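Sequence only, no structure available. Ideas?
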Amino acid sequence: MTAPPTPDVDLYIATEEDFQAAKANALRRAGCTLEELREQARTGEFRSSRAYIAWVFLRCLEERARADA
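Reply:
I predicted one. Tokens follow.
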């Protein structure tokens, strides 16, 4: 039996700085602050699809950070 071939893939591990840059970019593209985005999520009324996408993305980052802690 032979080992299955391993793909030649570069793996990039994101740093905290990368996460902060991604967070800032998501908020910039959504056109609101994190507090405004949280309020939109609380009411379920997002100003735009970009705001909704930013919320989903930022929630994933927050959940991942809690899981890693």
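The helical segments are 16-30, 34-43, 49-68.
Hope that gets you unstuck.
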